[in-house]
Specification:
This protein is an alpha+beta fold. The chain folds into four domains: about 70 residues, no CATH class; about 100 residues, no CATH class; about 50 residues; about 45 residues, no CATH class. It is built from eight helices and six strands. Strands 1-2-3-4 form a four-stranded antiparallel β-sheet, covered by helices on one side. It has a two-stranded antiparallel sheet with strand order 5-6. It starts with 7 loop residues before the first helix and ends in a 14-residue tail after the last helix. About 10% of the residues have low confidence.
Length: about 325
């Protein structure tokens, strides 16, 4: 299996050598190759066409060529092998638990993983670094002139890779394994500097959500809620927007399937507000709404010569 080349010229050269090697192999199997003439293979070594007794034979099997590994461009990697962080003898009883284990370890190490490939009938999952792919340049037919586009892409061609393999003879048990290429244990880029902006590192845990629910019931501001989460659960790396989103989700769940207008009328009825409403029955819309707090209605009945209006906007 050929490694990914670093340049398009090198890719074309590897493809040409591979084709020459295939042609030489086919000729050798038919007994047409000249044992004294070296064939152009990837390892530039002469093809051995001798049989068991040193004579030419068409039934021999040539040795595989030496694969040249393409160099990987470095974007500030730390030259640390990260595979030992994931080596474990544990067998996970579900794929979800195996993925959660891998993601949890990447959170400690400081990089993100993505599920790159499903293969072998669902018995293998290949996990790669999220910065592993790269921009492939302009879509033109002449591959020699392909130029990488100048962009602020985060992809660096990182080779880091690990696998989750289903244990043979089990229903849903998975283990962690690694490729044969040692280079795929390293990263060619720096680790995450600000975990708050990465989804795999940031989020509200169940205990943090309970704090949001309790403090929202106590009418605490989001900034105060976030400060409490940072104090008790700093590893959640929560941000204020996540508090806003969860509070909005709580409000939506409290609607119990009602829309915003129906929820407004429901809360007014629940709080014993005095409500007068007009609606357009043909368009099924609410046209006018008047609401008054019971205490305000009582004050108006007592002091009917004075009306106090507290309004943000100008009132005529």
């Amino acid at each position: 299996r050929l490694e990914r080349p670093s340049t398009m010229r090198e890719a074309m050269e590897i493809a040409r050598r591979r084709d020459d090697h295939l042609v030489a192999t086919r000729k050798a199997r038919r007994g047409e190759a000249n044992p004294t003439e070296p064939s152009r293979t990837m390892s530039s070594a002469p093809v051995d066409n001798r049989g068991v007794n040193g004579e030419n034979s068409g039934n021999y099997r040539p040795s595989p060529p030496e694969v040249k590994k393409a160099p990987v461009e470095d974007f500030g990697g730390d030259n640390v092998d990260y595979w030992p962080f994931f080596r474990t003898g544990e067998i996970f009883d579900s794929l979800k638990k195996a993925i959660n284990y891998a993601v949890g370890m990447t959170t400690i190490c400081g990089f993100e993983l993505i599920i790159s490939k499903h293969s072998k009938g669902g018995t293998l999952r290949i996990l790669k670094c999220n910065r592993g792919e790269r921009d492939r340049g302009n879509k033109i037919s002449n591959l020699v002139n392909v130029v990488r586009r100048k962009s602020k892409t985060k992809f660096t061609g990182c080779l880091f890779e690990m696998k989750l393999k289903k244990v043979a003879g089990t229903n849903d048990s998975w283990s962690v394994c690694f490729p044969l290429d040692d280079r795929k244990g390293y990263h060619n880029h720096p680790m995450v500097l600000y975990p708050e902006v990465h989804r795999q590192f940031s989020g509200l845990s169940e205990k943090a959500r309970q704090i949001v629910r309790d403090m929202t019931t106590a009418q605490a501001r989001p900034a105060i809620i976030l400060a409490a989460i940072h104090e008790k659960y700093p590893t959640d790396n929560a941000v204020r927007q996540q508090v806003y989103n969860y509070r909005s989700r709580m409000r939506s769940e409290s609607f119990e399937g009602r829309d915003v207008t129906s929820q407004l009328m429901h809360l007014a009825s629940w709080a014993n507000y005095i409500v007068f409403a007009d609606s357009d029955k043909d368009k099924h819309t609410l046209t006018r709404v008047f609401m008054s707090h019971p205490q305000s209605a009582l004050l108006f009945q007592t002091y009917y010569w004075y009306v106090g209006i507290d309004s943000t906007y100008k009132t005529n």
